[in-house]
Specification:
Distance between the termini: 41 Å
Helix content: 40-55%
Number of helices: 11
CATH superfamily of the largest domain: Response regulator
Strand content: 5-15%
Order of helices and strands: EHEHEHEHEHHHHHHH
CATH topology of the largest domain: Rossmann fold
């Protein structure tokens, strides 16, 4: 399967570097480049890529608003957003995850890690390093304006699903959850899917954020 990508960054040199990397790698196709968020949204609508690589800080419509528009458009439900940032703890990144971004990556990441990130996100998984995720959550989740969970939906979560949700929030994959709980990978996937449906999470990345926001999972300090 060819992974179709839109590159959104206000720095032409950054986009050019990513394009050269993807053009020389089998299995990737750059179907558009955007210098701001509005253009990124337009390209997402036009091309329906698998992944939009989104810089946060751009002039005009920034990457945060563009992420909201893409993830909030039902017609773009198959389009994933991978956020790029120069900082590993950035409130804008946290807000992008809340808006439905499927993960984030530092701009200075190794090329091989970028390729892996695109494959992971395109496959529907979340790209969230557990340690960095915990730092983001610990920094911002306690703020009242971030608590947007429907408490009634949380009551629908079973005890087993709470266990699974805690493991998801800890950064475990479905296979790792299955091993930890001594269940099959298929059963783990089913649990995760049901939790996402009950809570109303767009994808696994948003599920992690909502797990902390709801208070079901408490961030560990330090």
């Amino acid at each position: 399967m060819t992974i179709r990508v839109v590159l959104a960054d206000d720095q032409a040199l950054v986009r050019a570097g990513f394009r050269v990397l993807l053009d020389t790698e089998d299995g990737f196709e750059v179907c558009g480049e955007a210098g701001d968020g509005a253009e990124a949204v337009a390209l997402a609508v036009e091309h329906r890529p698998d992944v939009v690589v989104m810089d946060i800080r751009m002039p005009g419509t920034d990457g945060l608003e563009a992420t909201r528009q893409i993830t909030g458009n039902p017609e773009l439900s198959g389009v994933k957003v991978l956020v790029l940032t120069t900082f590993d703890v950035d409130e804008y990144v946290y807000q992008a995850l809340r808006a439905g971004a499927s993960g984030f990556l530092l701009k200075d990441t190794d090329p091989v890690d970028l390729l892996r990130a695109l494959r992971v996100v395109a496959s529907g998984e979340a790209l969230l390093a557990p340690t960095v995720t915990r730092r983001l959550i610990s920094e911002f989740v306690g703020r009242p304006e971030h608590r947007t969970i429907d408490v009634g939906a949380i009551r629908e979560i079973t005890d087993r699903e709470r266990e699974v949700l805690a493991l998801v929030a800890g950064g475990l994959s479905n296979d790792e959850i299955a091993e930890h709980l001594v269940i099959s990978s298929a059963t783990a996937r089913t649990h995760v899917s049901r939790i996402m449906t009950k809570i109303g999470a767009r994808d696994r990345a948003q599920l992690v954020v909502l797990a902390y926001e709801s208070g079901l999972v408490t961030p560990k300090r330090g």
